[in-house]
Amino acid sequence: xxxxxxxxxxxxxxxxxxxxxxxxxxxxxxxxxxxxxxxxxxxxxxxxxxxxxxxxxxxxxxxxxxxxxxxxxxxxxxxxxxxxxxxxxxxxxxxxxxxxxxxxxxxxxxxxxxxxxxxxxxxxxxxxxxxxxxxxxxxxxxxxxxxxxxxxxxxxxxxxxxxxxxxxxxxxxxxxxxxxxxxxxxxxxxxxxxxxxxxxxxxxxxxxxxxxxxxxxxxxxxxxxxxxxxxxxxxxxxxxxxxxxxxxxxxxxxxxxxxxxxxxxxxxxxxxxxxxxxxxxxxxxxxxxxxxxxxxxxxxx
Length: 301
Known about the structure:
mainly alpha, two-stranded antiparallel ribbon, 2% strand
């Protein structure tokens, strides 16, 4: 336990000491928020307005709450995974600098070394994602605030679980990287592609039926839906109170992936938590096993 704590402390210090890496990881969510508001805001607004039947109008504050909730949830869904890849670059940098070889020579079990990287990356990513959540909530306060205290707590729990997932996924991917060029290439691909496959940039309901079925197997899809449900619950409740028919609200929920379907069957939120939590356990187990196998090979060599 002492060794694990020392590794976590060492990895955390190195991450925050690298001002370029830390600043890039911290400012990326803020840049994404500005880009989302600038470019996706009107797209989401037009999508909501087109889903309303003729004769129904929505007050600007409610519409802003709808758009803001979707933007806010999209930001967090992407950041929890993409920031984890940035924070986890230390694992690859240690290979490049030779520090990883020094650590493996020391009497440190491979599983402890793996957990040291994982936990340090998790805490670093969590700090940045909490800062992103705070920035997103300030944005919601300005455009339309419908979050309750319980909504905020659930959102923080979703962020916690999704950061664990992103850290586990990045740990497995980065395990195979061994150069700065590979880090840059993987970071670019993840940053550009993850938002699409998790339904953050464009709801999965807008994709073709075949692609929807494929994406329904990905855990990140359910992480996005969890955050979206808790970010938009309040505004849906407000719409119900002012007289919107339940079928219209349900149609909007389907359109923004608050409701997800697995081969036609609706997936409950408890099932989403089980899928995401089980994926974290599975990925973390695979990551630790990979490090053990590498350690055993090194000993035999």
